[in-house]
Amino acid sequence: MLLPQIASAWGETFKATKGGANHNSFLVWFLSGRVLWALGYGWIVYACSTNRGLIIQRFFNYQPIQLLAKLAFGIYLSLIIIIGTRLLAIRETYVMTHSRIVSISEL
């Protein structure tokens, strides 16, 4: 149950040593945290699909949580229409680059 939280904390606690961490050690640390995160959520899905996730299944079966999930999924589906409309309404060519993202965020 706690593997996703452990993986998240694992990735945030990487501290560089006095001599500085090399690229390979950081890469191993980062990727192992992602693997733990994926295994944790995979285990949750497996437990729920085999009726072994009692607490999680009870939580997701509450009516307010189901309504919130439907609302969130509806917003997720409608966002593609909103984003597409906004991109098509731009009169200039939209180029996605890092410099454009930085210049927009500085405003």
Overview of the molecule:
The protein has helices at residues 3-12, 23-49, 54-61, 63-89, 98-105. It is mostly helical and 107 residues long. It has two domains: 1-61, no CATH class; 63-107, no CATH class. It is flat, with a radius of gyration of 21 Å. Keywords: Membrane, Transmembrane, Transmembrane helix. The chain crosses the membrane at residues 26-46, 67-89.
Secondary structure blueprint with pairings:
Layout: H1 3-12, H2 23-49, H3 54-61, H4 63-89, H5 98-105
Helix pairs in contact: 1-2
Distance between the termini: 41 Å
Largest sheet report: none
Number of domains: 2
CA gyration radius, whole angstroms: 21 Å
The ordered H/E elements are: HHHHH
> Kindly state the mean pLDDT as a whole number?
77
Transmembrane segments: 26-46, 67-89
Keywords: Membrane, Transmembrane, Transmembrane helix
